[in-house]
Structure formats: structure tokens, C-alpha cells
Amino acid sequence: MDLALQELAKRMFPLCENFLLINQFVESRSQFKNGLVNHAFAAALRTLLLDYQAMVAQLEHQFRLGRLSIQGLWFYCQPLMGTMQALSTVIQKASLNKFTGSAVLNLLQSQAKAMSGDHVVRSLLEKMTQCASTAYLSILERWVYEGVIDDPYDEFFIAENKALQKEALIQDYDAKYWQQRYSLKDDIPSFLSSAAETILITGKYLNVMRECGHNAQVPMSDNSKLTNFGANHHHLECIKAAYDFSSGELLTLIKEKYDLTGKLRSIKRYLLLDQGDFLVHFMDMAREELAKRLDEISVEKLQSLLELALRTTAAAADPTHEDLTCCVEKSSLLKRLSTLKDLDVSRPALDSNDLEEPISITGLETFSLIYKVQWPLSLIISRKALTKYQLIFRFLFHCEYVNRQLCGAWQVHQGVRKLKMRGTGISRSSLLCRSMLKFINSLLHYLTFEVLEPNWHVMHCRLQTAKSIDEVIRYHDFFLEKCLKECLLLLPEVLKKVEKLKSICLQYAAAAQWLISSSIELTSGTATADNNSVLQFEKEFNSELQSLEPVLNSYSQAEPYLKHLAQWILGVGDDR
């Protein structure tokens, strides 16, 4: 063969090789097991090959008529060289890496951008991308319009973990349902990467509504069909519209049908002791049972007493009181806090000696309330959130109990005032009792009016302006975290000091009533209390109170709210 003609023929060989590669890819990827994207891509390539084969047939016809030379063949084949080579490159990369789904679409898009200098090739690759993405966009459409993942070949960029059930939200402290039931994969189509998070959230919201039996389908029109994507970003506008609808619809459902605000207010009433009359009544009735050791307590008896207290106080008018039950925890507050590793506990943390359970631990230190929450409110008021409420409740409940015991001791002192014991041990005991009452009342005032009420007000205002359920969850979690910290529960060094002071107050309250009563009986109206015992309590209480001041001061620079606590409890900078 003439060398010039031979060289011309060799130039056409790549076209033949590329045809064979493309044809082989079409045959191997035409099965659905390779995924919907590969199937759609193969179908688009098959259409292209049909046009190519039609051209070959026409050239064959010209050849038979003797009208086709090597130069003529090259003239007709030359325009196809670039497109077939570009497609062959895509196919070789896709085959080598076994690409499916998003990876195929990203490969096509990146090759199209790389061929920006060749308008014909770029247009062809963009057309291939559109054809291959049709099936993918159908999966996306069902997700953002119905909250359903219809992805039989695992190509979609959102993964569903069916092992995570919504029931875990009310059972498991570490439940990851909302974060991990649906999650983003690594392979996201580049044309959707900017909206990936919005797409994920939109489907999650729709899914919640569907789980509630609510009609959760986004209203659709011909203009909102996700049939293709392009430079006009119409697909992103459709996704944004679907997000706005699903977010607003779910927020309305949670707030109105399931009365989120009412539920939170009810939890505040009982677990944050906003309505105290039922608690006073319950304490009076359950004092003996709560004073027992943990293994001797009857939770059933406590439950019946709680129900009686709720029915015979103002709480009876609240229908949500039926969601309230009680329990007795197995460990002290300090030890329970140490087991919750996700809490932002300030250092230095307590050592192992601080966490040893007191031998005399009773129901008074471990009593707690349980509040029943159903789906979908469990998204916001989860097991983790309720546990944090319970921690605050246990601290408040015990403070109220200490206050009640000191009030009882104070009443005993008031009963002997007519004996005119000025200057005696009873007089000294009376002053100590008043100091202890000032301490516990100041602490309760701080917890209630300096921490819980203002933080609740801030959260309530934020919830009114929230635009999505994720914002609601974030505001509610922030409220609980802030309350835990400002209630000293995340400051173990300070909390330990306060617990020690409460313990001294309880020991004194128990001893004071006995000391005064026995003194009066022994001396027939000219009694003096055991002065040494009173002095010992006074010394221990004042010493512990004074040791609290430097601890509060050391933390107050990083935690300014502790200055308010110091002012209330210690009278620092304010003669109260």
C-alpha cells in the first residue's frame, strides 16, 4: 500500500477502537444491576451508535458505487474522531473504577468542562450527562417531594440506616436517629453539591410528617418537575421551594397539632418546679418512704402518692399531669453526672473518691420524675433532653427538701422563743438556723430567678421565630446546656461544695429538733441546748461556706453568672 495512504488509514484506526470500546460498554451496562445511571447512559450511547452505524452504512453504499476513496473516508470520519475519543476516555475511566450513580455523572461533567475548547464535544458530553441523570433526578424528585428513597441500586447520595428506629429517641440517651437515620454519602453530583444539605433536610422533614400520618407531599406543577438541570439553576429553585414547604409544614404540625409549647411548659411546671404546690404536698406524704435506703423503697407506693398529690392540687386541672411518673435512680447526682460523657464538664473534674456513693444514700437524693413524650415531639424532647431535665429536677428537689427541713427546725426555735433563751445555746442555734435558711433560700432564688426563668424566656422567644425543626432542636438543646451549667451541674468542684453545705444543713436540722426538744424536757423550762454541738455545726457550716468563695471567684472570670451566685449566697459586694 502506498505509504501516504497507509498513514491516512492508520489515523482512522482509533475511531474503530473507540467504537468497539463504546459498543462493549453499552452491552455490559445495559443491565439494571449496574444501576439506573449506567443504564440510562448506555441507552444514550446506543442511540449515538445507531447514528454512527447509519453513517457507516451510507459510506459502505458509496464505496460499493465506487465513489469513496481513502481521502473521502477520512474526510467523513474526521469530525467524529474527537467525540468518539472523548466518550472512549469517559468509558475507560468508568469501567476501570467501576463507577455507578453520582460518580458517573461527575465524570461526565468533569470531562465536559475539560473539553471547553471544543464546542461540539462539550455539547455532546453535556447531552450525555443530561440523559444519564434523568433516572437520578427521578430518585431525587421522590425524595424532595415525598420524603421517600426509591433507590434500588444504591446510587443516591443519601443513605438510609433502617436499623435506627424513631422509638430509640425516647429510650436511648445516645440515640442518633435524627443525625444518622438519613445521612449524606461522599459521592454527591457536582450540580447538587451546593444544595446537598438542603436536599437531605427536606426529605427528612417530609419523612417525619409521613410517619405521623400527615399528607406530606409537596404540591407539584409541570414547572416543578426535576427532569433536567442546567445553567439556569431551575432545579435548585425547585429544591428550595420544596424545602420551604416541608420546613413550614412540619413546624406548623409540631407547634399546632402536637402543641410543642404546651408540652415544654408542662415539663417546666413539673421538672423545673414551676408549680410547687404538688411538690410540697408530695414531700409531706412521701417523706417516710423517701427517707429509706434505695433497696427498701417501693416505687409503686411513691407513684400512688405522686398521683394523689397531683389530683389534690392545682395540677389536677392540667391534663398533661397524666404523662408524669416517678422513679428512683441508682446513683447520686455527682456520680450520674460523671457517667454522661457528652456533657461539657468544667475541669478540674472530680476524682474517684468524690464519686464514691455515700453509704446512707436514700430516695431523697435519687428521686426523679419521668415525663412521657411521644413521636414526633421526641425529636425535640428526646431521652437525652429529658435526662438533662431530670438532673436539674433532682438538684432542685433536694434543695427544696433541705429548705423544708430547715423550716421545720426554725419552727421549733420559734416555739421556744417565749422561754426567753437569749444568750443560751438555743439562741445561738437559732442564729445558725437563720444563716442556713438564708443560704438555701438564696440558692433556690438564684436557680429559679437568675437561671431557669430568664433562660426559659429567651428560649421561648426564639422558638416563636424559629424557621425549622432543626432550629427548634438547637434552641432547646442550648437552653438545657446553659441551665445545666448555670445550675452548677457542669461545675463539679462547685457542686461538691454546695452538696456538702446541704448535707451539713440536713444534719443540723435533724439534730436541732432533737437537741431543743430534749433540752426543754430535761430542764423543765430553763433549758440550754448542747452548746458544743451547736458550735460544731456552726464552725463546720461557716468553714465550708467560706471555702466556697475562692472556688466561685476562680470560676467567675470564665463564668460571669457565678458572680450573681456569690452575691446571693455569700453576700459578696451586696449586704443581703
From TrEMBL:
Q: What is this protein called?
A: Gamma-tubulin complex component
The organism that produces this protein has a lineage beginning with:
Eukaryota, Viridiplantae, Streptophyta, Embryophyta, Tracheophyta
Q: Name one Pfam family in it.
A: GCP_N_terminal
Which cell locations does it reside in? Answer: Cytoplasm, Cytoskeleton, Microtubule organizing center
Q: Is this entry keyworded Lyase?
A: no
Q: Which keywords does the record carry?
A: Cytoplasm, Cytoskeleton, Microtubule
* Residue intervals of the Gamma tubulin complex component protein N-terminal domain: 2-257
Q: Which InterPro entries match?
A: GCP, GCP_C, GCP_C_sf, GCP_N
Name the Gene Ontology molecular function terms of this record: gamma-tubulin binding; microtubule minus-end binding
User: Boundaries of each Gamma tubulin complex component C-terminal domain copy?
Assistant: 260-566
